[in-house]
Design goal:
globular, 62% helix, mainly alpha, two-stranded antiparallel sheet, 200 residues
Amino acid sequence: MVMLASAKNLLEFFRGEVSSALQNQKLEASQEAEFYLVNLLNEFTKTENLYTASANNTPVEEPLALMLGRAVEAPPATRNMILKKIGDISLYIAGFFEESLARKLVDITYYVNMGGSAYHSLSALHSATGPMGQLFDELAHKFVPFTDILSEVSDKTHFHSDSNLLLLYEKWLRTGSIRSKDLLCAEGLIPVPTATKFIQ
C-alpha cells in the first residue's frame, strides 16, 4: 500500500500509478487521455476543486443535476467549463470513492450517466474530429474502464476496509466493469449477469 504523503511529486506519482493501472488492466488509452487522468487526480488533491463557490465565496457541494441545468442556460464558454467539471467530478468520485457511493442516495450509475453524457456533449461541442473532441469522445466511451483505473490508484493510496464482494458484484451488474469482474473471479466467484442492462 502506498501513502500519498511519501510521494515528493504528486504529478509524477500519479503518472506512475495511472500508467501501471493501464498496464495491469490491459486498457489502451491515448497519451492525451492518460495525461488527463493524471491531471484529474492531481487537481482533486485540492478538495475545494470538488465544490462550487457560492455567492459569499464559500464552497458548496452543488448537485450535478443543478450544474447541468446551469450549463444548459449558460453561454458556450461557460457551458463547456461546467460540462467539463460535471464530467471530471463524476469520473473522480465514481473511480476514487466508489465504496462510499454504496452509502449515498445516488449510486455509481448516476455518476456514470452524468459524467459520460457531459464528456459526450463536450466532444460534440468541440467537434469529434478535432483533438479536444477526440479526447472527450474517448473519455465518454471509456468512462467505466477509466473509473476502474482510478479505482486501482485509489486502492493503493487509501486504507480500505476488506473488499466488499457484494459492492463489487453490484458495480459489475450496474456498469459491466471488467476490473470488478476480475476481482470477483480472483475471490473464486464467477459473476452471473441478470436482466440488469449494462451501461456502455
